[in-house]
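Quick start: load a record and inspect it. Here is Glycosyl transferase family 11:
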Amino acid sequence: MDIVIICNGLGNQMSQYAFFLKKKSINKKTRFIYDRRSSSQHNGFELERVFGIPSGNMFVNRLLWLVFRILSIERFPHFSRPVLKFFNFFNIKLIKESPNYDYDENLMTPSKGLRFYYGGWHSEKYFKSNREEILKAFCFEYSDDISNIEAFTKIKETNSVSIHVRRGDYMNETNFNVFGAVCTKDYFKKAISEISSCVEDPHFYIFSNDIPWVKDNLMMDNMSIIDCNKGKDSWKDMYLISNCKYNINSNSSFSWWAAWLNVNENNIVIVPKFFINNVETKDVYPKRWRILTNYS
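Running the structure step on this input writes:
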């Protein structure tokens, strides 16, 4: 049996669930469980709240989660080593994704024993063949609040270009050199110039968790800031971004999924060279997206 761990924020949970759907098409016994440790840092199990995807049998899931937690213990080696030997004897193993999100074809075969899959699984190579099933699973409920209706209407009436500026915790000491240093002001300026050269009369819609930085660095006449969705309503930004005709992304799974769900046949998606700073991630972006290089 294969068990996919669902964790972190909405974009990560979507990648993990898409990976689960592909694994389930290979082995019908495949399950997913939610890693409850993520709740303290994010908005909980968003797949259920946003897309109506149920979390499953809680008793069974808690038992499986306990096994996963034991498998993932890295401290206390005097305890973990004999336990891991016991699990290995019964063919129970933890499989972690490559740190650079490289696609691993070997994972697309039925597993023997019990396998727990822990990672982001952001490469569409894992689930591209299941696109229609995924689009159906990730179908947003239409937002009926006035601010989002007005934003949606304007997005549909213009040559709309989303700009997702992901900062927030990317800027702290732990994350800056890994994630925060990727999408600089120069990246966004070059991406805006790239879109402006091939899209007639573009209008830019900014989505960000750092609006003051946007106002200080990216303001233009043909720009609107969308700041009505916060906290547990943040998913509505993904819905709006996915309806823009063109997308300028940050190195973020949130805007990754918004662009991937975009069904505009003439869509242009611009992404930064790195998803993780100075790490080659050759499989994380679909080949049809435009990767910007040579910006400071």
